[in-house]
């Protein structure tokens, strides 16, 4: 993405581990603003220049140069430049199954999955571990090097920052069961075009009560959550080599331009750039 002469440019590069669901991004943004979205992975980032502002878990946060960001799977968040120069940062996305493998290998099958209560940290050790993993992915290092650096990141995050509580209410709120039934239906039929009335009827609720409970439980409306499911499946298909035009229809978007627009809004990278990551 480029802008008129005299302005800083937005740019992004993307890489994927060829053997498992681990991804890396290096980007600089001035104008781009992320729409509220979430990932089905743990997302770890290092801000290199400038500052990024975002909302996550009900609070406003800023990640300036040298700070580390940690997002749990399904943490809704947005993002925008919080400095005139924009911000440059590196992100690494690690699937929960990969984290589970590392934990099982290190601590046995009973080890609890980590949750991070705070999304921004000042920690030089974590920063170095993340940058080393990012460099291995970007440079196409061999599998042994990637394994070692991934293990170092996961164990460093757990030992230094993670707790079992994400800082959310321990007890489910009123309507939680209804919201979870609706989430299960959305996961089963994310490409379907059923209406809010149909979804509410399927879970035995009014539309208003369902929307309120769903947003309270998951931080997104049902339609926003369905769009996230569609985008996540779109990422998987793109990584598997499916053409963007085919992906759009397969995951339920009206057309390729609609898919392209939401992909950029939520992930800061075009479907084509993402598909070419290797």
Automatic annotation (TrEMBL):
Domain HTH araC/xylS-type stretches: 180-277
Pfam families: AraC_binding, HTH_18
Coiled coil: none
GO molecular function, one term: DNA-binding transcription factor activity
Keyword presence, DNA-binding: yes
Family matches, as PROSITE patterns: HTH_ARAC_FAMILY_2 (PS01124)
Protein name: HTH-type transcriptional activator RhaS
InterPro entries assigned: AraC-bd, AraC_XylS_family_regulators, Homeodomain-like_sf, HTH-like, HTH_AraC
Recorded name of the encoding gene: rhaS_2
Source organism (scientific name): Streptomyces smaragdinus
Alphabetic keyword roster: DNA-binding, Transcription, Transcription regulation
Domain of life (superkingdom): Bacteria
